[in-house]
Amino acid sequence: MKTLLVRPFTDTTKGDSPPLALMYLSSALKSKSLEVGLFDNCVNRNRLGDLSLKNRFVMRLADKIAEYKPDILGMTLFSGELNDIYDICGLIKRNFRSLAIALGGPHATAMPDETLSQFPECDFIIRGEGESSLADLIIALSNSISLMQVRGLSFRINGNNHHSPDADIINNLDDLPFPDRDSLIHHYKNGDYRSLAFGIPADILATSRGCPFSCHFCSKVCRIYRRRSPGNILKEIDWIIANIHPQHIQIVDDSFTIEKQRCERILTGIIDRNYPCRFSVRSRANAVNPELFKLMKRARVETIIYGLESGSQAMLKAFNKKTTVSQNIEACRMARNAGLKSVGNMLLFYPGENPKTLKETEIFIRKARPTVVKYLVLTPLPRTKIYYDAKNNGRLVGDWKVGEKPPWIKLDEFQNLATMEKIARRMFFKSFLNPLRLYWILKSYGKSFFRSPVFSCKMIYLSMRAKIKY
Questions:
Q1: pTM across the whole model
Q2: Where are the domains positioned within the chain?
C-alpha cells in the first residue's frame, strides 16, 4: 500500500519553510518499511489563484498523484485553510475516485466530527501526533484489521462518524527519526525554502513539542511538553549543515528557553561546532536572562521571537499569559543589549480590549523597542477557551464552516471586524513607518534584502497589504 503526503500550497506572507510535520510522518513511515512519497507543491496561495485543473499548479499536483499512484493521500489541515483544502479534496476525489484521503493537523484534531461531516471526500482523520496512527492505519487497511484498533483515528461507517481512543503521545522524542529532508532536497537546492529576513536556503528545526502554559487563545495538537536531548538535536543540525548548507535555521519550539540548562547545553554544542549559519529562536519574555543571551550571541543566534501579545497588564491577565508588561520590556532590552534582534507578536481585540488598552500597547511598543512588531487580530481557534467562551456567551460571529469566513468575536467597544482590522493596520503602519524602526529593520536585515531583492520586495508588499490575523 502506497501513501503520498502532500502540501498543496504554502502561506502567502511568511516566506516558504519546509513542511516539518509531513517530513516527520514520512520518515516515521519509512522507518517501518512502509512505502511513502512526499510532495511539496511549493507555491504560495496568492499565486495559486482559482483552484481548478486549468491551474498549472493544481495540474502539477494532479500529475504527481497520477505518477505515484498512491492508495492513501495525506494532508495537513489548518483552520485558516479550511476552504482551500476542501476544494483540493474535491478536485482530487473527482479525478482519483479510488484514492483514500486522510487529513491531520490542528483543525482536524480539534474538530474531527465537524471535519468528517463537512468534508465528504475525506475518508480518515488522524488526530494528534500522527506518526504512529498513520502507520497503524496503513497496516490495518493492508491486513483487513478493524479500524477501531487504530488509535487516534476518526472515520465513517455507513454514514456515521466513529472515533477510536486517542493515541499515546510520543514521550521520548529521541526515538523519532529525523524529518525526511532527503525527499525534498531539490527544494532546498533550488532555494524554494527561504525567508524574507534570514536568507536562502533556510531550514526549521523542532527541539521540543507541546507547551506547559495555557494561554486562552492558543490551540495545540498536544499541550504536554516534551523535549529532545541536546545530543540528538546537534546530530540533526550536523546533518542539515552537511547536506543543506543553510544560511539560517529557525528553531520553531513555542519557547526554546523553557528549560535553561538544556538550552545552555544546546547553545554550547552549537558554539563548539562553530556552525556556519545563523539561528533564530522563540521564547517567552519571562524565560530569558543576560547569561543566556550571551550564549545565544556566541552561537550566532540573531533573532528572538517573543509572544508579547499586549502592552496592557489587564489584557495579559485575560490571556492567562503569566507574564507582565515589565518583563516584556526587560526581555526586549536584554536582547538589544546582547546585540540580538527581537520580534514582538501582538494580539489585538481579545475580549476586554478597548481604546485604553490599545493605547497602552502603543506606549509599550515605544518603551520596549522591539526590532519588528506584528499586530495580529484575534481569530478564535477551535478548542480554545476563548472560542468556547465566545460561543457560549453569544459573542462568536460565524463559526468554522466550509464556505464561510473564519469566525470573529464581537466586542462592544468596536463596531465590527472591519473596524478592528482597520485599527490593526493603522497600528502596524504607524509602527513600521517609524523612522527609527525602519532604520533598525534595514540595519538588521539589509544583508538579506540585498541577497534576494526581488523576493524581499515581494514579501514586503504582501505583508503590507494582507489582513493579518492570529
A1: 0.92
A2: 2-163, 194-465
* Dihedral angle computed from the Cα positions of residues 409, 415, 419 and 420, in that order, rounded to the nearest 10 degrees: -30
User: Any bridge partners for residue 74, and if so which?
Assistant: 5, 102
Contact 201, 186 (CB under 8 A): no
What whole-number distance in Å separates Cα of residue 109 and Cα of residue 86?
16
- Helices marked H in 244-382 — which ranges? 260-273, 290-298, 313-319, 325-337, 355-368
Fold of 2-163: Rossmann fold (3.40.50)
Residue 187 is placed in which grid cell? 527544494
* Cβ pair 112, 163 in contact under 8 A: yes
Set of cell numbers at residue 106: 490542528
Section 255-270 average pLDDT: 96
Contact in structure between 261 and 295 (CB atoms under 8 Å): no
The yes or no reply on domain 194-465 and CATH 3.90.226.10 is no
For 274-326, the pLDDT digits (tens) are: 999 999 999 999 999 999 999 999 999 999 999 999 999 999 999 999 999 99
Grid coordinates representing 412 are 462592544
Estimate the crossing angle of helix 355-368 against helix 325-337, to 10 degrees: 20
Q: Where in 121-183 does DSSP place strands (E)?
A: 124-126, 153-157, 160-163
Residues in CB range of 343: below 8 A, 6 or more apart: 303, 304, 305, 306, 370, 371, 372, 373, 374
CA distance 187 to 214: 36
Closest CA to 154 of 171, 138, 176, 133: 133
Residue with cell string 554550547: 268
DSSP states of 189-240: HTT-SBBTTTBSSEEEE-SEE--S---TT---S--S-EE--HHHHHHHHHHH
Q: Which DSSP symbol is given to 346?
A: E
- Taking residue 435's Cβ as centre, other Cβ atoms within 10 Å add up to 7
Helix, strand, coil: what percent of the chain each, to 5? 45, 20, 35
**What letter would DSSP give residue 354?**
-
